[in-house]
């Protein structure tokens, strides 16, 4: 199935022609300077964002949140409550923007869809045997098609980390291409595909860079750090490497790919550090919910508390916001 | 070899005590602390509003588990603070002497009273319920029980003059019942409070139960009074400043904080404090329970 994705750049099309070419290309990517990447990420994290810039950043971060609940204990009631919260994060303040999407397991998609209606908030579903990705391909594809049929606007798939670490890049590539095809909807449009690497399991930054290119060449609309089920989840250096990858990919092919760090981002301060990095590394084009998202659940409340502090001038507390 | 009296002074810059750690002020500011004669003693951290915010977060985090401990255990821990203070007696005597300008004998007496007061409050941990709680007679087949519960996170403005006895007398009654405290120490006399923080850090008090900020109450208090996640505020430290007190009471009204009002003049801390300092930060919960037949 390789070579089915359309890549304008002839060099990259060559790279996906065979398993050997793919390996040559991925291993030919420049290595990541680990110390340099960590220092750069830490340095960008020290920027001071205040007053009107902070107001802008908080509202943007709220608009970028994929409000997530991926628990075995999720009930229709809980996801409905979450969907209501995504539409109106702060009921006390009508100027507060809505979140980007609600992210749930495929069986909850219909429930969420019904609650969200035409509000513009999207429904994202995790598919392909999330979070381990350990299932046969046809099961993963059926999982994806189910979610798309139920009305999911976005599919968050996990890559097969075992295959990736074993060096079976072609297998991973083919799987992403196949899932991308399964994202096709009856109305002719595709559900957006986010590819989760689970960077906590990829061991090295070099692997993160390789996985990023692999996924982008296979047609990913978004690349996403983690499932949130493995520690460490999203970190600043990992996101930095992925942002560099999407920047370089656009330079080479003209195609823009989004980035979504997920898991472990809990405070508004953290979120703003990520936004600074997006602006400095990928560029202001990515400062938009269409191109950058946060996968989070507790983050939203902290953003709302900080926002309330900005508007009322006094510190707020967790008592004034819903838990889920 | 140089002569023995040429040793370079170790000049100290003390830090804040937040969440069981000793951070510098987020602002990076510190101020000079002088003794009662105006001679430089040390630098103390000048707490900013963000330090106060961090302290509230730490206090909130610690509150449930502190209140969840048995009253008996809280008593043990307060008693342990008294023990460690006793061990550090010479340091407290010196700090009190320096900051309050007392004679050695008077400073000794103040430290004695401060330690005794802690022991006294420690004893109340498992007795206050019996005194202010009640089994109420009601017209029906119910047990009707009123029990006191801690208010939550309490901001405490410590007295400006009595830097040790006064401090202990406002902090101990707050924490003994399971509240956690964000304390703003005396501005001009912060050093006994700093030493007290070092005692707290080494006496089994969980991090975040007491958070000590050195700095100006007039700067920090408005943020604490308006903070929606602070449940009560003790204004003792701004005795004799009615305009500021009114401003803080108005700010505190927004989330219906309990307010212990500022006295006109700083009280005499050697007197028997009574139970009011404890009961000011308690909520009474009443439960109805059917009597089985």
UniProtKB/TrEMBL annotation, chain A:
It is an enzyme of class 4 (lyase). It comes from the Bacteria. SUPFAM superfamilies: Aldolase (SSF51569). CDD domains: DeoC. Keywords: Lyase, Schiff base. It catalyses: 2-deoxy-D-ribose 5-phosphate = D-glyceraldehyde 3-phosphate + acetaldehyde. InterPro entries: Aldolase_TIM (IPR013785), DeoC (IPR011343), DeoC/FbaB/LacD_aldolase (IPR002915). This is Deoxyribose-phosphate aldolase. It comes from Nocardioides soli.
Automatic annotation (TrEMBL), chain B:
Pfam families: Aldedh (PF00171). Keywords: Oxidoreductase. The keyword Oxidoreductase applies. Residues 36-259 form the Aldehyde dehydrogenase domain. Signal peptide: none annotated. PANTHER family: ALDEHYDE DEHYDROGENASE-RELATED. This is Acyl-CoA reductase-like NAD-dependent aldehyde dehydrogenase. It comes from Nocardioides soli.
């Amino acid at each position: 199935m390789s070579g089915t994705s359309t890549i304008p750049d002839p060099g990259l099309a060559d790279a996906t022609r065979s398993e050997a070419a793919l390996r040559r290309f991925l291993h030919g990517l420049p290595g990541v300077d680990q110390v340099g990447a960590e220092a750069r990420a830490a340095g960008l994290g020290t920027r001071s964002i205040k007053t009107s810039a902070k107001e802008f950043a908080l509202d943007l971060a709220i608009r970028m949140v994929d409000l997530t609940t991926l628990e075995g204990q999720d009930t229709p009631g809980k996801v409905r409550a979450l969907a209501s919260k995504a539409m109106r994060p702060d009921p006390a303040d009508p100027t507060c923007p809505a979140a980007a999407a609600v992210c749930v397991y495929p069986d909850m998609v219909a429930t969420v869809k019904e609650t969200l209606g035409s509000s513009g908030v999207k429904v994202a579903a995790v598919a392909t045997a999330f979070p381990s990705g350990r299932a046969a391909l046809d099961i993963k594809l059926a999982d994806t098609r189910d979610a798309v049929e139920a009305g999911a606007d976005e599919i968050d798939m996990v890559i097969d980390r075992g295959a990736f670490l074993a060096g079976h890049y072609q297998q991973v590539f083919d799987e992403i291409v196949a899932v991308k095809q399964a994202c096709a909807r009856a109305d002719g449009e595709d559900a957006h595909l986010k590819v989760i690497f689970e960077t906590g399991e990829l061991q090295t930054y070099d692997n993160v860079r390789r996985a990023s290119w692999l996924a982008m060449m296979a047609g990913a609309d978004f690349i996403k750090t983690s499932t949130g089920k493995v520690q460490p989840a999203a970190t600043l250096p990992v996101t930095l490497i992925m942002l560099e990858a999407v920047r370089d990919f656009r330079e080479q092919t003209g195609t823009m790919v989004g980035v979504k760090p997920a898991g472990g981002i809990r405070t508004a301060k953290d979120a703003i550090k990520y936004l600074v990095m997006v602006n400095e590394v990928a560029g202001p084009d990515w400062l938009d919910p269409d191109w950058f998202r946060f996968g989070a659940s507790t983050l939203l409340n902290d953003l709302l508390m900080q926002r309330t502090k900005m508007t009322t001038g006094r510190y707020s507390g967790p008592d004034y916001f819903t838990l889920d | 070899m140089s002569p023995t009296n040429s040793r370079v002074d170790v000049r100290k810059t003390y830090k804040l005590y937040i969440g069981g750690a000793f951070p510098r002020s987020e602002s990076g500011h510190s101020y000079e602390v002088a003794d009662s004669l105006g001679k430089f003693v040390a630098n103390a951290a000048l707490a900013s509003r963000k330090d106060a915010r961090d302290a509230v977060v730490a206090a909130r985090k610690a509150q449930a588990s502190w209140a969840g401990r048995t009253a008996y255990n809280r008593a043990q821990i307060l008693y342990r603070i008294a023990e460690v203070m006793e061990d550090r007696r010479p340091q407290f005597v010196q700090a009190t002497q320096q900051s309050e300008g007392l004679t050695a004998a008077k400073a000794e007496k103040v430290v004695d009273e401060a330690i005794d007061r802690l022991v006294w409050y420690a004893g109340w941990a498992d007795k206050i319920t019996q005194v202010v709680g009640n089994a109420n007679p009601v017209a029906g087949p119910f047990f009707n029980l009123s029990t006191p519960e801690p208010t939550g996170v309490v901001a405490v403005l410590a007295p400006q003059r009595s830097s040790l006895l006064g401090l202990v007398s406002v902090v101990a009654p707050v924490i003994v019942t399971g509240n956690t405290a964000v304390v703003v120490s005396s501005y001009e006399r912060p050093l006994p409070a700093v030493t007290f923080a070092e005692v707290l850090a080494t006496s089994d008090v969980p991090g975040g139960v007491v958070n000590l900020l050195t700095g100006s109450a007039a700067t920090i208090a408005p943020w604490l009074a308006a903070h929606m996640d602070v449940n009560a505020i003790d204004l003792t430290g701004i005795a004799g400043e009615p305009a500021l007190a009114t401003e803080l009471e108005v700010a505190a009204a927004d989330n219906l904080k309990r307010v212990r009002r500022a006295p006109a003049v700083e009280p005499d801390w050697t007197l028997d404090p009574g139970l009011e300092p404890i009961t000011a930060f308690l909520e009474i919960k009443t439960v109805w329970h059917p009597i089985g037949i």
